[in-house]
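Students often ask why we bother encoding 3D structure as a string. The short answer is that it lets us treat folding as translation between two languages. Here is a chain of 158 residues written in the first language.
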Amino acid sequence: MNTTSLMAMAERFLGALKHCQLLRMRVAHADADGMTLVLPWSPHIVGNPQTGAVHGGALSTLMDTTCGMATLCALPRFEVCPTLDLRIDFMHPAQQGKDIFAHAHCYRVTRDVIFTRGSAYQDDPARPVCQVVGTFMRLGQDVRGGLGFGARLKEDDA
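And here it is in the second language, the structure alphabet:
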């Protein structure tokens, strides 16, 4: 799959996830090396009002979504791949007023499971806010998400 069609599929995928829309997440980059998403800072994602630190749930959503969408980069065609396991190590609080970038890639693809890893950062990728490893189950190309989810993603994937 070329980078242009991968980006288009990634944007459709993200657009189909209501919670990601509410968080205003967007696709920054997608290619064979992985997926990069952005979580814009806003007062709505603050977990500690005294420091302005971002809520761990918003970071968990960002990391699960980024790792899950990294499967798009590793597979030749779209497959529904639900999360089996996700481990997030929070390294330090995300700072108030700064967008958060998350990058994930697939490091192993088997017949049944895809293994991912990634990190989130604000200013410097070498100083991650959190790191993640995740596994995702391959359900195959014939499985569809609810309400035509898979069909919407496959529109331009011919």
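Translate back mentally: DSSP finds four helices and eight strands in the chain. Keep this in mind for the problem set.
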